[in-house]
Design the sequence.
């Protein structure tokens, strides 16, 4: 049933900014690197829809001040060594990317008339600043760089499973999106850069990111972390839009039904530019208090900044126009948009070499636990992290592969996994993937599960997800490869949903995206800990771990979430 | 509706939209691209942005399928 077997030294799964960077950096004269993507590289993943915010600490900036701001606003859950690495390595690596763009005529970083980087105060920034990246030219550049470096590309193939041998990763299995072919990959090392799981929820451009990279890592025994901080952004209620960070950075305001800019009550320092942790919970609380609906008001944005927004967010402004909405002339109803483990929100627990606990398995970008962020720090960290972690993961995976033995497993060893991939094609009477996906969304998107959380509402959601996992997912029926892909997406989504809900339930305090009226305070005495998830046989295990804080110390005691 | 149609009088059969669609909404028979799974369109506009002909692809931004609201 396997149509094709491909051998490589390094296998990179996922072709967004992090995966492309990892593949480019893993490629040497003497090795083979294969990048596999579910879509078309440069038009797949989150980066192409990135809303332009990029956090670059320039040589003239004070790194200590930036470190303090990022850690304080990440509510002390950041891996501080990673923050340090990002502050040091972000600038040279992004200058390299910008130069690659110039070589092929693309302007990646936005510059003013004098050639200086445009820098703004966007969401969450106090002393830190946000540069502006043009996402489509950046991804066009990365595709060109992959081809120039002779990285092999395999597109429209969804990788579903990792294969282990002698306790280390030795390959993977994938499914052709359009032809239903099953691919077997043998690799000496693997970089997972396939993002998190967005649960096909609201928000623009994310509905093919359904958590395979995190679910297959869990299945293979990797430890994941920070899934309690599964996140939300915000969007218009009527349509999917992104770019909130730039919008509020350029003067956008959140208003409640009384016309009040209510965010000043939740974050007196930055108001509507508050971090997402604050904004999403605040919107839910305003609505619960009877002051909904909530609106985004862009009517005060200057003409010059209107032009910048339209340039950076072309898809979003086309979407507004198609519904005859001019957001610069009328306020627009807004709501929280659950994004799960996308953009941030947890993933594979990595060290500073991007290594997981599974030998030979590395991770980069949003597939990881996004260690630089903590809960959710200042805006623009994500894309910088893609470039920095991609660089490190690619080089680490290539070094590991140069020493590792060639995998020797055969098709016979993966018969069960292949049968599981193809099972929905034989299940004639089961539910459709669409039905199962909707039931997962119904379990995790409601405000009492995603925003204002209680042990009771989370336990109810968990029971529902367990029932979907055991009774619905194994019975999903698919008629063709297109439906088979969705069936396997539903499988990943159920796994990530369970990891997220169990992790949120485990944290008994309020911090970041975890807001619990029953545990209203941040508790640094008991809960300055990372929430971890791993496999214990067939059981999902959740635990808390203390971690080093070498540069910035959290205050002791309990206090209202900051 | 999300992606509504491809205007046959404007389409040049270049296949770019088929190549870039992240959701596999578009299929191709010979050189002709058609909208096979409109219910899976996520209104990301990549097909329209990469289309070489103005107005050949018509999209409106209504969500293609129901997603449960948070409240």
Sequence:
């Amino acid at each position: 049933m396997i149509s094709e077997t491909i051998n490589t030294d390094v296998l990179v799964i996922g072709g967004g900014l992090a995966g492309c960077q990892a593949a480019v950096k893993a490629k040497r004269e003497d090795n083979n690197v294969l990048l596999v993507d579910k879509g078309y590289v440069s038009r797949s993943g989150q980066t192409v829809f990135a809303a332009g915010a990029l956090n670059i600490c320039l040589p003239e900036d004070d790194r200590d001040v930036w470190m303090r701001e990022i850690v304080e606003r990440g509510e002390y859950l950041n891996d501080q060594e990673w923050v340090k690495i990002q502050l040091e390595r972000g600038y040279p690596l992004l200058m390299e990317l910008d130069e690659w763009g110039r070589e092929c005529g693309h302007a990646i970083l936005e510059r003013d008339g004098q050639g200086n980087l445009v820098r703004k105060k966007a969401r969450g920034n106090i002393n830190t600043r946000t540069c502006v990246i043009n996402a489509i030219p950046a991804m066009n550049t990365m595709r060109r760089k992959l081809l120039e470096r002779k990285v092999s590309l395999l597109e429209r193939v969804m990788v579903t499973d990792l294969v282990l041998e002698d306790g280390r990763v030795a390959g993977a299995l994938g499914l052709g999106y359009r032809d239903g072919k099953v691919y077997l990959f043998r690799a000496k090392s693997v970089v997972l850069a396939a993002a998190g799981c967005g649960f096909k929820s609201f928000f623009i451009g994310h509905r093919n990111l359904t958590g395979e990279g995190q679910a297959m890592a869990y299945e293979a025994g990797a430890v994941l972390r920070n899934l309690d901080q599964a996140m939300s952004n915000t969007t218009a209620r009527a349509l999917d839009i992104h770019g909130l960070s730039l919008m509020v950075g350029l003067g956008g305001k959140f208003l409640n039904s009384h016309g009040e800019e209510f965010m000043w009550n939740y974050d007196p320092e930055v108001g509507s530019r508050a971090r997402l942790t604050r904004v999403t919970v605040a919107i839910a609380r305003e609505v619960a208090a009877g002051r909904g609906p909530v609106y985004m008001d862009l009517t005060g944005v200057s003409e010059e900044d209107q032009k910048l927004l339209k340039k950076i967010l072309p898809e979003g402004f086309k979407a507004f126009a198609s519904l005859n909405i001019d957001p610069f002339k009328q306020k627009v109803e807004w709501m929280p948009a659950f994004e799960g483990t996308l953009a941030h929100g947890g993933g594979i627990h990595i060290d500073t070499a991007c290594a997981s606990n599974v030998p030979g398995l590395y991770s980069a970008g949003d597939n990881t636990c996004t260690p630089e962020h903590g809960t959710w720090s200042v805006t623009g960290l994500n894309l910088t992290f893609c470039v920095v972690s991609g660089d490190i993961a690619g080089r680490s995976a290539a070094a590991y592969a140069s020493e590792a033995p060639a995998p020797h497993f055969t098709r016979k060893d993966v018969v069960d996994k292949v049968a599981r991939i193809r099972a929905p094609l034989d299940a004639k009477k089961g539910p459709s993937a669409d039905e199962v996906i909707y039931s997962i969304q119904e379990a995790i998107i409601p405000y009492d599960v995603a925003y204002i959380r209680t042990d009771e509402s989370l336990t109810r959601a968990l029971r529902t997800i367990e029932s979907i996992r055991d009774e619905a997912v194994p019975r999903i029926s698919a008629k063709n490869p297109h439906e088979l892909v969705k069936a396997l997406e539903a499988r990943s989504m159920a796994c990530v949903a369970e990891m997220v809900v169990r992790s949120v339930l485990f944290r008994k305090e309020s911090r970041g995206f975890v807001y619990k009226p029953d545990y209203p305070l941040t508790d640094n005495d008991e809960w300055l800990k990372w929430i971890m998830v791993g496999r214990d046989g067939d059981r999902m295990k959740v635990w808390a771990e203390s971690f080093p804080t070498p540069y910035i110390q959290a205050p002791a005691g309990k206090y209202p979430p900051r | 509706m999300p992606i509504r149609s491809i205007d046959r009088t404007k389409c040049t059969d270049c296949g770019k939209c088929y190549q870039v669609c992240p959701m596999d909404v578009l299929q191709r028979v010979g050189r002709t691209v058609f909208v096979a799974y409109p219910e899976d369109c996520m209104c990301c506009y990549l097909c329209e942005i990469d289309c070489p002909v103005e107005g050949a692809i018509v999209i409106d931004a209504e969500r293609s399928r129901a997603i449960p609201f948070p409240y």
